[in-house]
Amino acid sequence: MVEIQPKRPRDAQATRQALLDAAAALFAERGFERATVRDIAARAGVNQALLFRYFGSKKALFGEVLERNGREQLKATAPESLLEAALRGMLLADDGRLGDRSLEAFLRSTGGSDEVAATGRLLGDEYARVLAGLSDRQDSDLRADLVLSWLLGIGLMRVVVGKEPLASADPDEICELVLGAARTLLEGLAVPVPPPAP
Amino acid sequence: MVEIQPKRPRDAQATRQALLDAAAALFAERGFERATVRDIAARAGVNQALLFRYFGSKKALFGEVLERNGREQLKATAPESLLEAALRGMLLADDGRLGDRSLEAFLRSTGGSDEVAATGRLLGDEYARVLAGLSDRQDSDLRADLVLSWLLGIGLMRVVVGKEPLASADPDEICELVLGAARTLLEGLAVPVPPPAP
DNA sequence: TCCAAGTGTAAGCACGTGCTTACATAGAGC
DNA sequence: GCTCTATGTAAGCACGTGCTTACACTTGGA
User: What is the CATH number of the domain that holds A176?
Assistant: First the structure.
């Protein structure tokens, strides 16, 4: 992801980025509450006081992590591919370090604090708006919310709860089942052909 | 729910029940981590030391709450009505004190600890088994997991995240959309006619 | 009546947490 | 070389947490 610089000894920008990366990983692994500022700073290899100097608070750091990663995917993928991209991203989140970790971070943190839920709501609104644009139904907003709910629910059961057989199921198989049903629900959503070569 | 006894002054059974009720409410409102043993004991009107005498630990108390409430619904409803019952229970959980609060408690606690997720997984297995029994497809277990995931996802978005328009949507409308799609997914699931007069 | 078990309580321990403060050190401009 | 600011660090504060301990009161049976 990030090019390794020849280690400029004192680089605020690099330190900030290291904290951001470490936070993204730890929030995804343990959720907001159980990821401590001490662990985040340790993984980034810096003193924890810097975390507060650069981000102000743990909550602000969480918000920045979630927003950055979320909007990245949102901006990078076309509307008609968003559902599949988001679903595949989450399905791949557990094996290897691929996939969208920010969704996992969100799922592991929702119960924690109201601010966390609020941050997620903002991002959810953007996702839902794009999804709703794919439908021409009267209640397209509600249908989009339901599709988005399904996506999160699958992530919840698969990566945080680890429910079998869902947790070990083949992503392709899941995609086929889910995208088919979601298309029916949205009606008029064009499910894209297998994704273009990267 | 519970009949108010003429207040037998020292009644271990009643105290235990009071703790169980208070815990169910607080876990649903705040999740496992943010519901403190002090608050639970205070709402039950007893000393917090009793909580540990009767249940051993906070985690054990959580497990007992979740198990009791979950299995209650599971035992009380016929398989072909389970999906709708669980969905309606969750949709009603926010307004008033109706609905199944244990699902809400679970949703607000998943990220917290691994044991919590494990407790939920056990219950989820039972729900999924019943749901899978309604389908005669080859991969009915996976399909049941997906339906269950949807249910939890909807709860997550509606009651803990508060995503609009889902959060304020009419339960009947949601049921119609979801049950239709779920029936298609399970194929062969008989969606019951509007529920019998209560 | 008296004792033992059952039920309840006040106080505190040990620990982890987010966050702050006081201080060290490196690097750029003069 | 000197200073001044940006960057980094060690130590600790204040607080909330789950859980324990030592003790008081009630009750029922002998």
Answer: 1.10.357
